[in-house]
Amino acid sequence: MRQIGQLAGRKGTPLLDSVARSASRILRAPVALITVIDDTSEEQVFCGMRGSVGAFTPRRATPLSHSMCRTVRDMNAVLRVEDTRRAPRFRDNAAVGELDVIAYLGVPLVMPSTGPVGAFCVIDREPRAWSDGDVETLDALVPVAVEALLVAPFCRKAERRVLMA
Fold it and tell me: From CA 65, how far away is CA 44, in angstroms rounded?
């Protein structure tokens, strides 16, 4: 498992928030997150976000117990869940009950030098069948998110830690 290390700062960047906002608007999803998984602190950090994730919104992070993005990163593949409450793999995930994550679509966030580090996802509060077009739209925004992460100071620090590990 890649160790991202402690990420400094929880403010995200205007560019990453803008990319998340675009995904939310285009896909008509109330929440969009650009997440980086930090295995050393057992949390996922929202480097870009649009919408509310309940009490975790100000921190811009959740424990990995609330993460479906970790599955996307670990599989390095797209994950579509129409209704998390009916998906055996996710129905007991804390995000379902605590954060009302009902429909989830995530694509891997892959850094050029380290491989998959997280996910770019959209979330709906009601069941939703994600189309191939939805996946293509989200996937088309990934390169913008990756470029923004490469210039973000907290992610540069994290990437150096991964390369040194």
Answer: 10
Best CA proximity match to 34, nearest among 5, 60, 64, 7: 60
For residue 75, the one-letter residue type is: M
Written as one string, the DSSP assignment of the chain is -----PPP-S---HHHHHHHHHHHHHHT-SEEEEEEEETTTTEEEEEEEES--GGGTTTTEEEGGG-SHHHHHHHTS-EEES-GGG-TTTTTSHHHHHH---EEEEEEEEETTTEEEEEEEEEESS-----HHHHHHHHHHHHHHHHHHHH-HHHHHHHHHHHH-
pLDDT tens for the chain, 165 residues long, are 233 323 323 556 788 999 999 999 999 999 999 999 877 878 899 989 999 988 888 888 899 989 999 999 999 999 999 999 999 999 999 899 888 899 999 999 998 888 999 999 999 999 999 999 999 999 999 999 998 888 765 554 544 554 454
